[in-house]
Amino acid sequence: MELIQLTPHLDVDPSQPLRTPGEILLHAYLIPQALNPARLARRTGIPAHHLKAFLNGTRPIAPKAAIRLSLALDTTAFYWLALQARCDLEKPVLRTYRPIVD
Fold first, then answer.
1. Number of domains within the chain
2. Which residues touch 55 (CB under 8 Å, ≥6 apart)?
3. Residue 101 placed within a domain
4. Residue 98 binned pLDDT confidence (cut-offs 50, 70, 90)
5. Which CATH number is 71's domain given?
6. Is 68 exposed, middle or buried (0-12, 13-18, 19+ CB in 10 A)?
7. CB atoms within 10 A of CB 40
8. FRET pair for 63, CA 20 to 30 Å: which of 21, 70, 85, 95?
9. Residue range 41-51: average pLDDT?
10. According to the 3-state scheme, what is the secondary structure of 17-86?
C-alpha cells in the first residue's frame, strides 16, 4: 500500500482534466470489465439506481459507497472519495465568485 503524506498544501495535478467519479467508474472499470450497473449492484450491494446516478453525475459518492466500490473493484475507498472531493471543490471554482474584501 502506498501512503500519502497529508499536508495542508496537498493538491492534485491541475494539468489533469476534471472527470467525475462516474466518468472514471464507467470508462476505467465498467466498460473494460464488461459490467453494467445491474451487475455491479449485485457485486457491491449498492442499488443500481444509485450507480446510475453516480454515472450521470447527479449523486455524489459517499463513504459507504466508496468502501463497497473499493472492495468490488480492487481500489481504495480513498481513491473514490478523493475523486469526489476534487469534483466538489472544482464546481464552485468554475462559477464566478466575487473576491471577499476585508
1. 1
2. 22, 23, 25, 26, 30, 37
3. no
4. low
5. 1.10.260.40
6. buried
7. 22
8. 95
9. 98
10. CCCCHHHHHHHHHHCCCCCCHHHHHHHHCCCHHHHHHHHHCCCCCCHHHHHHHHHHHCCCHHHHHHHHHH
